[in-house]
Amino acid sequence: MDKGYEKQQFETLKIKAPVAKKFRRFCRAMSGSQSMTLLLMIEFFEHNGISPKESIGPQMQTLESLIKKRINGVIAIMKDIEKNQTKPTVAMMQSLFQEAEPKKKPLLLEKEAKKKKASLLKK
């Protein structure tokens, strides 16, 4: 029995024989009663705001292939950025930081002071 509809009476609908057979096969596949299957179908169309006459659009396989193509495009762009921008920049930064510390040059004052000492010692 259909839950919530046990006490409801049956109503007849006039449906062509081939359509009725196809609907009964569909109901068996859905493993529900004909009334509940029809109710589920109506609720589906109302909930999604579509008409049975409308096309839902591209199939899932088509959408999946589209998404895969877009993802592959994004991956290619990221690899290109990594190859042409990130790796060279990282290499330049590493070479800058790995350079030996510059040799300490004596201050100019020290040179002058040494020269004065040397000239004083010579005298």
Automatic annotation (TrEMBL):
Domain of life from the UniProt record: Bacteria
Protein name from the UniProt record: BfmA/BtgA family mobilization protein
NCBIfam families membership: mob_BfmA_Nterm
